[in-house]
From TrEMBL:
The keyword Lipid biosynthesis applies. CDD domains: 4HBT. The keyword Hydrolase applies. Residues 18-127 form the Acyl-ACP thioesterase N-terminal hotdog domain. Residues 163-247 form the Acyl-ACP thioesterase-like C-terminal domain. Keywords: Fatty acid biosynthesis, Fatty acid metabolism, Hydrolase, Lipid biosynthesis, Lipid metabolism. This is Acyl-[acyl-carrier-protein] thioesterase.
Length: 254
């Protein structure tokens, strides 16, 4: 296999129906573009899902942080650059850079991924795949200047805000609730009036457990040190109404 560059660069378009009332790309769609870039990058280099599925494995997103100075506007062409900056047995970290056609930087992202066995849903050894091929593509010199995800701490007094059911459109190729769907549902905790006064500066999400179609998701929110900084906990419940934490989030507005 021909050795490709360590950094991948992929072109996207801010399609108008993927933009909100302010004419800017929805954060959820930007997240999807980042995950697509990660998929293209890993597949092109031989350790993506196209290969992993043949050996009964897949990638799952563990953590994601996105920090944007601004969002692309409708019809803007932009690029997502992505690269892996570390790979261990259980986890690998991948960075993103969002750039306009003229070289303007919109923002950055940082993510952590795990490889799992499709039958057991347990972690698999990343370094055992194709003789540790991923280590040949580690890039540590290219800058991604945002902070890594923090450990979000929620108190027992967090306010329950909303509960929703999950359906067909929430489920992704791995058979569980899609990573970006959690983000979209979480950002719906604030209404249009709020977004007319504030924009998302940064958000972080850490995935704790899988959920599936039919699970009910519950959202708990609490304010941090300022009136524009929030923590959110998402849980799932089954038919016995037992709640299990699915993920924790932090959203900072400006």
């Amino acid at each position: 296999m021909e050795k490709l560059s360590k950094i991948g660069r992929y072109e996207f378009l801010a399609e108008p129906f993927h933009c909100d009332f302010s004419n800017h790309l929805f954060m959820g769609h930007l997240g999807n573009h980042m995950l697509n870039a990660a998929d293209f990058h890993s597949n092109d280099r031989g350790y993506g899902m196209n290969y992993l599925n043949t050996v009964n494995k897949t990638w799952v997103l563990s953590r994601l942080a996105i920090e944007m100075e601004e969002m692309p506007k409708a019809y803007d062409k932009f690029f997502v650059e992505t690269w892996v900056d570390s790979a261990l047995k259980s986890f690998t970290s991948r960075n993103f850079k969002v750039i306009g056609e003229t070289g303007h930087v919109y923002g950055y992202g940082k993510s952590v991924w795990a490889m799992i066995d499709l039958d057991t849903r347990q972690p698999a050894d990343i370094l055992a795949v194709r003789g540790g091929l991923i280590t040949e593509y580690i890039e540590t010199e290219y800058s991604c200047p945002i902070e890594k995800s923090s450990r979000v701490k929620m108190s027992a007094d967090a306010t329950p805000v909303r509960s929703i059911d999950t359906y067909y459109n929430d489920v992704d190729i791995n058979g569980h609730i899609n990573s970006v769907k959690y983000i979209e549902h979480m950002l719906d905790l604030w209404d249009v009036a709020w977004y007319k006064q504030h924009r998302i500066k940064r958000f972080e999400i850490a995935y704790v457990a899988e959920s599936h179609q039919g699970d009910k998701l519950h959202f708990y929110r609490e304010q941090r040190g300022t009136e524009t900084d929030f923590n959110v906990r998402i849980t799932k419940s089954n038919v016995e109404r037992e709640e299990t934490e699915v993920c924790r989030c932090r959203v900072q507005f400006v």
